[in-house]
């Protein structure tokens, strides 16, 4: 059973997203907040996407005030509160389904890209001293900008996919309305 903890220590731990929740016994909730916070830092620095850092204060403030909202709950509500992942609430319930669906392919592609980038950069470091300056600079730039280019293409492809999907939905609804107008459906 989760028990309420010290107000002072709760305050201290609340400064690190997820730590306050973990201190109070909500491990899944804390891990999801902490993972989101540090994953955002990693992605924004690795992919050189500074604007992504603007989401960090949102996560930080959410985690900070969520800690105090949990602490201020009446005892009966606090003890009845169920620990669940915040950002991925279905994850705990559908772990096997997540890894067997379309998400599995997306995860596999992401892992391949990350692995390729790590491999590329390490091979570059091994052989850079024997490369001419022009080739060394070109290979370095390709390895540095490849993940960003791939993310950019993926975002564009996702946007096109969403537009095409919406257009198909609108076309199918228009056909249904035309059939209704002609008396095809009653």
| Topology pattern, helix = H, strand = E | HHHHHHHH
Overall mean confidence score, pLDDT: 80
**Which blocks of ≥5 consecutive residues have pLDDT under 50?**
none
Residues in β-strands, percent:
under 5%
Shape: flat
Number of domains: 2
Q: Quick one: how many beta strands?
A: 0
Structural class: mainly alpha
Distance between the termini: 57 Å
Rg over CA atoms: 24 Å
Largest sheet: none
Instruction: State the share of residues found in helices, binned by percent.
Output: over 70%
What's the tally of helices? 8
Task: Explain what this protein looks like in three dimensions.
This protein is mostly helical. The chain has two domains: 7-93, no CATH class; 96-182, no CATH class. Helix content is 73%, strand content 0%. It has helices at 7-13, 19-23, 27-46, 56-72, 75-80, 95-98, 102-127, 133-182. Helix 7 runs antiparallel to helix 8. It is flat. The model has no long low-confidence stretch (mean pLDDT 80).
Features:
single chain; 186 residues; mainly alpha; 2 domains; 8 helices
């Amino acid at each position: 059973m989760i028990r309420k903890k010290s107000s002072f220590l709760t305050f201290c731990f609340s400064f690190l997203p997820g730590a306050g929740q973990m201190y109070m016994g909500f491990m899944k909730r804390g891990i999801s907040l902490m993972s989101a916070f540090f994953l955002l830092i990693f992605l924004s620095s690795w992919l050189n996407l500074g604007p992504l850092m603007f989401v960090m204060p949102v996560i930080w403030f959410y985690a900070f005030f969520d800690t105090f909202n949990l602490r201020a709950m009446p005892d009966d509500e606090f003890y009845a509160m169920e620990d669940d992942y915040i950002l991925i609430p279905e994850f705990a319930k559908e772990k096997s389904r997540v890894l067997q669906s379309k998400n599995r392919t997306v995860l596999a592609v992401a892992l391949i890209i990350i692995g390729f980038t790590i491999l590329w950069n390490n091979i570059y470091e091994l052989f850079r001293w024997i490369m001419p300056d022009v080739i060394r600079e070109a290979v370095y730039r390709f390895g540095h900008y490849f993940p960003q280019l791939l993310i950019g293409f993926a975002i564009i492809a996702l946007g096109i996919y969403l537009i095409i999907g919406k257009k198909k939905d609108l076309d199918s609804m228009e056909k249904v309305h035309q059939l209704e107008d002609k008396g095809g459906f009653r």
